[in-house]
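Please decode residue identities from the backbone states below.
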């Protein structure tokens, strides 16, 4: 399928997910994350969920990371296609941006070169590790600045599509994608 078709399909599928299902499935995702070989790393970048879009709730993953004394890094949109990265601390305050994404107001910036693992939002993904996001390109731009060794992990409520047919050279593939039912490795 084409990206625009997948965006429409999965936005509609998300409308059928209840808040209770989001909570239960997000905890199952966090439990699956425990099985991925990432626990020797130190800097973990994760998005904060847009609840209005019925995204995976990343709070269980953040709690898991903090419980293991990992550094959690949160993005903030900067400009048209870039993000800044801030260390999550007890003093971090948040404000929603124009897309309803909670973002740090200020804090300690973390360069992309330090980030070991990135948890990625997505609408869909395929069996080759390609992902479909909202189409703004923020994460592809960000991931190209990270070290080539940075682990890229998608989080999805749904299983993989067979193929996203209109990928291009600027798309960055996932290393893993975690669903409530399984872990895909690419």
């Amino acid at each position: 399928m084409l990206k625009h078709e997948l965006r429409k399909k999965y936005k509609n599928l998300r409308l059928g997910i209840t808040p209770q299902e989001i909570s239960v499935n997000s905890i199952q995702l966090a439990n699956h994350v425990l099985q991925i070989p990432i626990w020797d790393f130190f800097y973990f970048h994760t998005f904060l969920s847009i609840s209005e879009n019925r995204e995976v709730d990343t709070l269980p993953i953040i709690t898991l990371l903090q419980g293991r004394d990992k550094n959690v890094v949160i993005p903030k949109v900067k400009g048209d296609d870039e993000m800044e990265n801030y260390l999550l601390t007890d003093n971090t305050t948040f404000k929603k941006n124009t897309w309803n994404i909670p973002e740090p107001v200020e804090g300690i910036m973390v360069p992309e070169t330090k980030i070991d693992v990135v948890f990625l939002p997505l609408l869909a993904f395929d069996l080759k590790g390609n992902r479909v996001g909202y189409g703004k390109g923020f994460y592809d731009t960000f991931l190209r600045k990270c070290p080539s060794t940075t682990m890229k992990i998608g989080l999805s409520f749904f299983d993989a599509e067979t193929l996203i047919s209109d990928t291009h050279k600027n798309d960055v593939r996932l290393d893993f994608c975690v669903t409530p039912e399984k872990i895909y490795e690419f």
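Observation: The helical segments are 3-15, 19-33, 59-67, 138-145.
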